Every structure is written in C-alpha cells, then in structure tokens.
C-alpha cells in the first residue's frame, strides 16, 4: 500500500515543475475568458465607433454605386470602383480589428502570463494518435468542455433571440429609413445585443477561470518520488555531496599539515589539542594559526612538528582557548595577545639558546588566559 500511495500525484507542483511546463508552452487557458474579453472589447468599440463606422461605410456604399454609363461597359473601371469600395471598408473596420486583436492576445496573457515556448512549436505526433484523441474526447476535461459549449450556445442563442424579439419593430423599420439612419440604428441594436451577451458570458468566465486554474495545478501534480528526485537533482545526491565534503576536508587537512613545518611553535594539551602558530613581525600584526586539531589530528600535528624540529609547548588552557576561538589562517584574538606573547618570547629565547648556548630559558607557566576563553577539557 505504501508503494501505491507513493505513485499517487498528491504533491503540489514545485516551482521547477511549473517553470518546465511554461517552457513547454503549458499554461492555464480559459476560452471563456478569451471570449468574454473579445466580446466586451468589441461591444465597447461598437458603442464608441459605431456611428462613425456606419457613416463611413454608408459613404463607401453610396460612392461605389454612383457610377456613369462608361464605367458599366469598362471592366477595368468597374474593378477600380470595387477596389476603392473594399479598401474604404477595410480602412474603416481596421480600428475595430486592431482592438479585437489586442483583446484576443491579452486574454491568455492575463491568465498564464507572457510565454515564449519554442518547444511548443515543434512537431508532436502523439497529438495525431486517434486513441489518445478519443481518450481526450471522453475525459472529464472533454465532458466539461462539452457542457460549457452547450451552455454558451444556449446563452448566446437566448440573448440573440431576446434582442430580436425586443427590437422586431425597429428591424422592420430599417427597410424604410434612410441609409445613414438605418446603419446607425442597426449598429446600436448590434451593440446592445453584444452588451447583453457580454453580461452572460462574464458569468461563464467567472466560473471557468477558477476551474481552469485548478485543473492546471491538478495536471502538474507530482508524486512523492518525483519530489524527492527533483530535490536530488537541484540540491545534489546526499551521498555524492557527502563524498565531496569528505574530499574537501581531506584536501584542507593536507594543506594544513603542509603548514606545520613552517610554524614557529605548537601549543599543546598533551591529551587533546594541538595548535600551530606562525608570526612574521614584518608582514603580520599578530601571530596566525596555521594548523589546529584534536584527538588523532592533534597527535599528527605533534608528530610532524617533532620531525621538523618545531618547538612545542605544553599549555593546556591556552591550547584549548586557541582551538576554540581561532580559525585557520586567522590572527589570534586580542584577549590572548599577552599569553601568546609570552610563548613567542620563550620560542625566541629557546632558539637563541640552541644557537649560542648558555642558560636554557624558563618554560612559561600559568599563562594568562582570560576567564571564559578556556572551554575546559572535553568529557569533564
């Protein structure tokens, strides 16, 4: 049962899944919203430009049918008249066409955003599969589209019938009205019908948009296994990342061990910690930690220091404080300047004694480590 539940698409689509869908041209779409916007825009344009277009069309028709006898018997002149009529009508309707084009493009942009998906332009032979086509026809989506189409037809047909019935007398009067007046009246009737259709289609759009968004999200749902796989692809396989971190730690450890022979002194806690310090008065403002470690790593630092003759000093509180509060390649904190200064003075005296002889230097004891800097011995 657990395996079956993992295969169920119960997880919301991830941002990456949504982005991939957009790259493939899959965005939420609502035909009802497009129809509503185109219709309301067309109706508004007819209300604003209807009288102007009607007057211009009437002028085109009047000029087109006003020709002399010579034009009737010359097909070239008749074609020229026809061309002028068509050009005039097209120029008159061009603003309406442009407004409708903007509305048709704006509808999908409002719902799914502006998308440029070259992948969607490629051939998809799966869409030509008749079996899949039948499956889409008899799916829940196909049933919903059929119900919407029937409902939309009933709405548009009902509104059109209502407008015709309410304006039957005006429609008959158009036959006896002058051309300009008749065109203007007919435009107002068409605009009134379009507005009524818009009000009804707006209700369909309000119901369809949430349904399309829900269906889009449902279509892109993911299984738990897909979510895990995507996380691995984005963040990396934990095993691989762990291996990379282990290699990085090993490389850092090798670099650190290579710095131990260059250290001036190694401060140790014989049972737990080792910290290697280097100081160059000309280039450094304070001693720098070049290596540090605990347990086996601390022992390894002491072994390398012994092999290369690096002085070592047992100072457990200072060693613990340096290990806890200093990062590699970083200067020691100001609170430990006094204690480390005594250590460096001892190292210089030890070097002078080795080279020149005389009395050996006194090993510093009770180095001043401020309260709170020493974390104490692990396990105590």
Automatic annotation (TrEMBL):
Protein's UniProt name: Flagellar biosynthetic protein FlhB
Coiled coil: none
Subcellular location: Cell membrane
Positions of transmembrane segments: 33-54, 89-117, 146-166, 186-211
Record function comment: Required for formation of the rod structure in the basal body of the flagellar apparatus. Together with FliI and FliH, may constitute the export apparatus of flagellin.
Keywords, sorted A to Z: Bacterial flagellum biogenesis, Bacterial flagellum protein export, Cell membrane, Cell projection, Cilium, Flagellum, Membrane, Protein transport, Transmembrane, Transmembrane helix, Transport
Biased composition (Basic and acidic residues): 7-25
UniProt entry tagged with the keyword Nucleotide-binding: no
Main location: membrane
Sequence similarity: Belongs to the type III secretion exporter family.
Membrane topology: Multi-pass membrane protein
Region Disordered, annotated ranges: 1-27
Gene3D superfamilies recorded: 6.10.250.2080, secretion proteins EscU
UniProt xrefs under InterPro entries: FlhB, T3SS_substrate_exporter, T3SS_substrate_exporter_C
């Amino acid at each position: 049962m657990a395996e079956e539940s993992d295969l169920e698409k119960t997880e919301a689509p991830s941002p990456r899944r949504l982005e991939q869908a957009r790259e493939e041209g899959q965005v939420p779409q609502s035909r009802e919203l497009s129809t509503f916007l185109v219709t309301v825009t067309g109706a508004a344009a007819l209300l604003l430009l209807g009288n102007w277009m009607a007057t211009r069309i009437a002028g085109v028709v009047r000029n087109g049918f006003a020709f002399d006898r010579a034009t009737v018997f010359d097909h070239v002149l008749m074609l020229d008249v026809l061309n002028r009529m068509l050009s005039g009508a097209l120029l008159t309707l061009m603003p309406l066409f442009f407004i409708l084009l903007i509305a048709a493009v704006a509808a999908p942009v409002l719902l799914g955003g502006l998308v440029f998906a070259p992948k969607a332009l490629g051939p998809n032979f799966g869409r030509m599969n008749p079996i899949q086509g039948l499956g889409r026809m008899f799916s829940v989506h196909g049933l919903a589209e059929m119900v919407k189409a029937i409902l939309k037809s009933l709405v548009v047909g009902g509104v059109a019938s209502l407008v015709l019935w309410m304006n039957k007398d005006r429609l008959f009067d158009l036959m006896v009205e002058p051309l300009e007046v008749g065109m203007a009246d007919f435009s107002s009737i068409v605009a009134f019908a379009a507005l009524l259709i818009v009000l009804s289609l707006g209700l369909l759009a309000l119901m369809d948009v949430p349904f399309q968004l829900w269906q889009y999200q449902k279509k892109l749902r993911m299984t738990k296994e897909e979510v895990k796989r995507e996380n691995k692809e984005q963040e990396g396989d934990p095993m691989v990342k762990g291996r990379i971190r282990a290699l990085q730690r090993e490389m850092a450890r090798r670099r650190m061990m290579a710095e131990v022979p260059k250290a001036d002194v190694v401060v140790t806690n014989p049972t737990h910690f080792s910290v290697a310090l280097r100081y160059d008065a000309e280039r450094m403002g304070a001693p720098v930690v070049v290596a540090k470690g605990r347990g086996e790593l601390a022992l390894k630092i002491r072994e390398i220091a012994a092999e290369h003759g690096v002085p070592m000093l047992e100072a457990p509180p200072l060693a613990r404080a340096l290990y806890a509060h200093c990062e590699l390649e970083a200067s020691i904190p100001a609170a430990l300047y006094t204690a480390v200064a005594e250590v460096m003075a001892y190292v210089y005296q030890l070097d002078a004694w080795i080279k020149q002889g005389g009395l050996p230097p006194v090993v510093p004891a009770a180095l001043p480590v401020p309260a709170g800097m020493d974390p104490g011995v692990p396990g105590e």
